[in-house]
Amino acid sequence: MAPRLCSISAAARRLLEGPRPGAGDFAAAARFYSKDNESSWFRSLFVHKVDPRKDAHSTLLSKKETSNLYKIQFHNVKPECLDAYNSLTEAVLPKLHLDEDYPCSLVGNWNTWYGEQDQAVHLWRFSGGYPALMDCMNKLKSNKEYLEFRKERSQMLLSRRNQMLLEFSFWNEPQPRAGPNIYELRTYKLKPGTMIEWGNNWARAIKYRQENQEAVGGFFSQIGELYVVHHLWAYKDLQSREETRNAAWRKRGWDENVYYTVPLVRHMESRIMIPLKISPLQ
Questions:
Q1: 37 pLDDT band (50/70/90 cuts)?
Q2: What are the φ/ψ torsions at residue 23 (nearest 5 degrees)?
Q3: DSSP 265
Q4: Which string of DSSP letters, residue by residue, matches 40-94?
Q5: Who contacts 108 (Cβ-Cβ below 8 Å, separation ≥6)?
Q6: What is the pLDDT of residue 32?
Q7: Whose CA, among 133, 146, 197, 215, lies 20 to 30 Å from 154?
């Protein structure tokens, strides 16, 4: 049986053959953000209580000094079209990232290596919150090249979904980093009403996971599926991931964080991802 091939239209070829930003353009673009086991049984006798709150999660958990909004996209690609999809994406998305008329920037772009196969994940930042998002969306409606890109991309996809996210105040700001790295996106779907407790525990626990600079970013959903948390980690390889995660268990206090947060979770999953060539996170 002959292998199925992804059909590329003439319009897609024009997009692929057009000029692309070089590595120097990325370097010149100033659009990145710079910057005890023996007592565990005793702790289990007590219920961890949370003070009642009346404020929104976005007010209590997100960063006050910034108004960044993030969008994460999950694209499930036809297997025979993944290479063509990556090429098309790498030809068009950097232009939006570098265009100062668009208040959006690429944070990271990946293909899933372990987890859901033939999948692309994109993370965008909108500097200025919802007004910046709407400004960008309105401008894209009249961007002929982007509309052509979306039309060609749609022929390569099986499904897609997205979420609007805010970043936890106690996590690092996602910043570009040199590679090569692999990235792990750990997604936690929490029980409704437990987001504040999750944040309180991780605000104390994040220090146990920063010695190797593996913590990239932490986010919680605002639009789309709610009570969803995404933690993004970077490792040199799968072996360093194993060693780094095991080292956390040797630190007094990490087991307590796990003990108190696991009951808050109704579902979790992990993706190991490889960055695309255009990704600021390499």
A1: very low
A2: -60, -35
A3: E
A4: HHHHTTSPPP-----S-HHHHHB-SS--EEEEEEEEEE-GGGHHHHHHHHHHHHH
A5: 121, 122, 123, 174, 183, 232, 275, 279, 280, 281
A6: 42
A7: 133
Inter-residue contact 167 to 199 (CB < 8 Å): no
Within 8 A by CB and 6+ apart from 271, the residues are 112, 113, 114, 115, 116, 119, 121, 184, 185, 186, 187
The neighbouring-strand residues paired with 73 are 122, 162
Q: Is 213 left (phi over 0), alpha (psi -120 to 50) or beta?
A: left
Question: Residue 167 belongs to what H/E stretch?
Answer: strand 157-167
- pLDDT grade, residue 41 (50/70/90)? very low
Q: Output the six-digit token pair for 24.
A: 């120097």
What's the pLDDT tens digit per position in 230-243? 999 999 999 999 99
Give the integer Cα–Cα distance in Å for 97 and 107.
9
CA distance 29 to 31: 5
Model's pTM, two decimal places?
A: 0.84
Task: Please spell the DSSP secondary structure of 125-166, one letter per residue.
Answer: EEETHHHHHHHHHHHHTT-HHHHHHHHHHHTTEEEEEEEEEE
Give the whole-angstrom CA distance, residue 101 versus residue 168: 27
Residues 146, 162: Cα–Cα separation, whole Å: 18
Mean pLDDT, to the nearest integer, of 116-136?
Answer: 96
Tokens 């695309």, located at residue? 276
- End-to-end CA, the chain: 37
Q: Exposed (0-12), middle (13-18) or buried (19+): which is 237, by Cβ within 10 Å? A: exposed
Token pair in block for residue 48: 């961890």
* CB neighbours of residue 228 within 10 Å: 19
